[in-house]
Design a protein that fits this description.
Oligomer: single chain
Low-confidence stretches: 1-10, 231-235
Number of strands: 8
CATH superfamily of the largest domain: Ribonuclease H-like superfamily/Ribonuclease H
Largest sheet: 5 strands, mixed
CATH class of the largest domain: Alpha Beta
Mean pLDDT: 79
Structural class: alpha/beta
Radius of gyration: 20 Å
Strand content: 25-35%
Strand order of the largest sheet: 3-2-1-4-5
Length: 235
């Protein structure tokens, strides 16, 4: 793979894998670096993260961030001018070009909808910029998981980290999710549940993991007959 780089110079490639809700509800991720042949170095696992609770999207972003941090701390290498981050996350590869715009709009998209995991997206963008300053180009490539010996190996590493769980902590994780609003012109936001009494109008119920129900709903104001869109709420 390292011999097929567009820049025609040897490159370091890093594969990342996320795992969430593995036996007991733990989450984890892993990354393994593969060096170009001329460095004559074996593959090395550089990310081994397991925590009690997170989300799949955060576990997709985190190993990419940690891989970039590792590259910055260990570069340069002889004749290496490019790093390829290979991930099975379409969430990362599809949204990487959108993230700079979200950041400029205070983490909202063109429709005004809040884009979450902004702490990790911000770290990812800063990591790419830092590496660029030392003369290394970073490319992200999507690859289907568990199809090669390498991807199977890293999948097992992420599973091990997730099953272990508890050692690390995803301090930026916020439970809950957001779906598109059913109110015309409305924008869904996370609902800050804090014991308050409200009238809600559910419109979607979906059975999730281990019997959890995820309910999409609108908050209803009885005095004005107005609906206010809110996020999915898992219970």
């Amino acid at each position: 793979m390292s011999q097929k780089c567009l820049t025609r110079v040897p490159s370091t490639s890093t594969r990342t894998v996320p795992i969430t809700r593995i036996r007991g509800g733990y989450s984890g991720c892993a990354a393994i670096v593969h060096f170009p042949e001329h460095l004559d170095r074996p593959d090395e696992q550089i990310v081994d993260f397991g925590c009690g609770e997170s989300s799949i999207n955060r576990m997709e972003l985190l190993p990419c961030i940690e891989a970039l941090r590792w590259v910055f701390n260990h570069a340069p290498w002889d004749d290496v001018r490019r790093v390829i981050i290979i991930t099975d996350s379409q969430y990362v590869t599809d949204n990487l070009r959108r993230a700079p715009y979200w950041k400029k709009q205070v983490w909202k998209n063109l429709s005004g909808e809040t884009k979450f995991n902004e702490d990790l997206w911000d770290r990812l963008l800063k990591g790419i910029a830092k590496i660029a300053k030392v003369g290394i180009r970073v490319d992200f490539v999507w690859e289907q998981g568990k199809k090669t010996l390498m991807t199977k190996q890293i999948h097992r590493a992420a599973q091990t980290a997730a099953k272990r769980g508890g050692i690390d902590e995803d301090t930026g994780y916020r439970p809950g999710a957001v779906s598109r609003s059913m109110v015309n012109g409305g924008v869904a936001e996370r609902f800050p549940a804090a014991g308050q009494v409200l009238v809600v109008r559910p419109y979607v119920k979906k059975i999730m993991y281990k019997g959890e129900n995820r309910i999409s709903f609108n908050v209803f104001d009885e005095q004005t007959n107005a609906k206010f869109p809110h996020s999915d709420h898992a219970r």
